[in-house]
Structure formats: structure tokens, C-alpha cells
Amino acid sequence: MSNSAPRDIQQEELLEMEDQGKRYGSHTEENNEPDGCATCCRYILIFFSWVLMFFTFPFCLCASIKIIQEYERAVIFRMGRISGGAKGPGLFFILPCTDEIRIVDQRTISFDVPPQEVLSKDSVTVTVDAVVYFKVFNPVMAVVNVENYQGSTRLLAATTLRNILGTKTLAEMLSNRDTVSAEMQANLDVGTDPWGVKVERVEIKDVRLPLQLQRAMAAEAEASREARAKVIAAEGEQNASRALKEAADIMNESPSALQLRYLQTLNTISAEKNSTIIFPLPIDMLKGFGSK
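The structure corresponding to this sequence follows.
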């Protein structure tokens, strides 16, 4: 159920986009209705096209029958005007003399945004590149409203990348890439909607810093690590001295404990293979010399 729900939503969106394309095509045809004289000439030329096809049959089938793949849509211009909405997929028939066909690919297209030098909000120059994924949801708008929807989307993506990153600080670029990508996708989607293009995803690939800034950041990070290491070492020394003090207080309360510790140290030294010579000396004797 969880996997089928997103698929149903995607199918509904695709159907809605196709309906929008059909409505846009019919609306364009209604707004561009020719006058009576132009309509008469149009029908005469169409009639002569049919006559020419009749006399050249079956050789004309090579230019009249078109096959559109599942992922493609065809926009037909008859006498310079859109004939209905987008056609396809499948097989359909056109008039070779009066019809002009434009095929639009509706698969997702990806492209790399060229590296852009951007001045951040905190006056740091960085080089940023990204990747953009988009698809055509309305073939009629993609053909009629813009000359080259792919090239226009590429140029708009580069401009939008510079504009958005110019309002961000360096820390925001490095830590909030998802937020920057989502904001860039929303802006691109608004700009490409009149062209019949849907921007599906935008990803920031790399943020390259100047070499001097990299060295400064590395020195700052190294100094911070050394400061933390010194603090940790000082805390360790403090804890060790506190433990030694507690151990000395316990041994001071019981003289036999100090003697046992002395014997344990002798056992540890004798277990190792070394040439150390140990002369046991009673502690009371040392106290006698100390009193004199």
C-alpha cells in the first residue's frame, strides 16, 4: 500500500499535466482562429494535399505515417497553426505538404550547471556547481512559448544558482545544502512553468573554497583540536592527582598497607628478566636515621 500510493499520485500528476497540455492547445487554436479568406485558402491547400497524396499513393506513406515512442509527444502545425494538442504515443497520419511536426521528449533530462564563482553574503568568493533534473509536462507550451526549452533552462539554472547563493553565508552553503537546493528548485520551477517544464530535483555537487581560505580554516581547526587536547590532558592530570591523594590517605591510616605495597612492587620487578639488584631495607630503620 505504501509503494502504490506514490505511484498513484505520480500517475494523477501526469494525467493532469497532459490535460493541461490539451486544454492549452485547444485554447491556442481558439484564440488564433483565422478569418474567412484565410480559412478558405487553408481548406484549398489541404484539398490539393489530399489530391497529391492520392496520385502518389503508396509512396506518400513514407512521409505521412509517423510513429511516436511511449516517452515522446508530437506537436503538429497545420498551415503554421497548432492542430489540436500533443499527439502520441503510437502511430498517426499527417499531410506531408501542409503539416509540420515537432517531437518533444518527455523523459527526465539532467545536466550539469557549469561552475559558478559566487560572492557569498559574508564576502567570500567560492566556486559552486550543481546538477538539475527536469522534464517536459506540456509539449505544446515547450514548443510554442520558448525557442529552445533545454538551453533556456540551463541558462536560468546558472543565473538562479548565482542569485540564491549570493544571499547565503559560507557556513549556510556548507551546512544547509538541502535547504539551498530546495530553494533553488522552487525558483527554477516558477521560472520554467510557462515553458511547460517541471524541475524535479536540484543538487549542489561541490563548493570549492580558495586555497588561502582552506589553509586558514585548516589552521583554525588544528588550533581548536590542540586546545581541546590540552584541556583533556589537564583534566586527566587533575583526576590522577586526586586518586593518588586518596590512595596516600588510605595507606597513611594503615602502615601494613604500605608494607604490602612495597612487597608487591618487589614481586613485579623480580618477575621481569632484568639485571636489577634489590636490597630490602626496613622502613623503621630509615625512620631511626631520620630521628637522629
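The mean pLDDT is 77.
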